[in-house]
Amino acid sequence: DWICYLHVKDSVMKDGQVEYRMMGYGDVPVFDTLKILHEGGYDGYISLEWVKRWCPDLQEPGIVFAHYATYMRYLLNQLDER
Description:
The chain is α+β, with helices and mostly antiparallel strands. The protein is built from 2 helices and 4 strands. It has one domain.
């Protein structure tokens, strides 16, 4: 009843620094988190923050957002099949 919006990022630690990655290419347990929320009845929005302004070495948004939509659809379908 309390969570109505989920904000996700994926990343790895490299030399003690966070490096953001496209969803599914990092170390963040995104599927496990979604599973816990799904089992708790969460059915709200899931957004991706990808701000090249503050991290100019990030991949281009057009590539990342298309990948995000496809990858999240895949994960959510996996949850529905369980």
